[in-house]
Amino acid sequence: MADRDVGQLFSVGKAVLTPLFTFAWRFRVEGLEHVPADGPAIICPNHTSVLDSFFLPLVLPRRITYVGKAEYMDDWKTKYVFPALGMIPIDRAGGNASERALAAAQRLLEDGELFGIYPEGTRSRSGKLHKGHTGPARLALRTGAPIIPVGIRGAREIMPPDAKLPKPFMTCRIRFGRPVRPDRYRDRTDDRMVLRQIIDEVMYEIRALSGQEYVNEYATKRDERLPGQAARIPSGPSANGHDADGSGDEAEQRPPRSSADALAHPRVSAKT
Predict the structure, then answer these.
(1) Which CATH number is 216's domain given?
(2) In a domain, 237, yes or no
(3) In this predicted model, what pLDDT tens digit does every residue of 38-61 receive, in sequence order?
(4) In this structure, what are the phi and psi dihedrals at residue 198, rounded to the nearest 5 degrees?
(5) Quick one: DSSP state of residue 14?
(6) Fewer CB within 10 Å: C terminus or N terminus of the chain?
(7) How many folded domains does the chain comprise?
(8) Which stretches of 31-113 are assigned E, i.e. beta strand?
């Protein structure tokens, strides 16, 4: 599907869904001034509900693009809905799928677009905030794009894991934080310590915006199944040794750090 067609689907989808969603739910949005009016930016939200990918594009003043698996384009139920929400399909077969996804994201950012990525790598079934993968940090260093942390609250209550239908007439709060800028690290694009430090700053800010409890483990490497449910096969690492987000980082036990001083803050584990 051509980018122009995806753009048209996004415009139509947003025009149709916005009045329906704003009738069904109340949205409280803060910090939109942190999203640049033009130019590239990486939008990094927490992810606790399937509705996150519906709500976020509706409240943003600009088109946002996500990367999604190409199989969605083979299903009539999602073939048009997901592109209408800004998804571009990526074939995840083969060992270099994560690099292809990052390459597609890099092209979008170099074209001055907004790119959305869930730093946890998958939806958190527990509702807790998990350790972030370094893919967003790698993209920021490659392109110079700022990372905008986002905290979404209420979407999980509207549609919890395994729910068939969302609950109407509830409130979702979406808070956009101050940008985390990679400028001071531009000459260290392949430094794993730098990548980890940047994404830990982002996760610290997301936690402050969402109020979630932080778990210092990857969601894709943690048993998130409900009682009596079979264990899920994780999506990474891939055959080329990279994690699902293209980071290639190990499960280092590092806590998130504040953007003010990434090395000074203690481990965060308590609820807010």
Answers:
(1) 3.40.1130.10
(2) no
(3) 999 999 999 999 899 899 999 999
(4) -65, -50
(5) H
(6) C
(7) 1
(8) 41-45, 64-69, 87-90
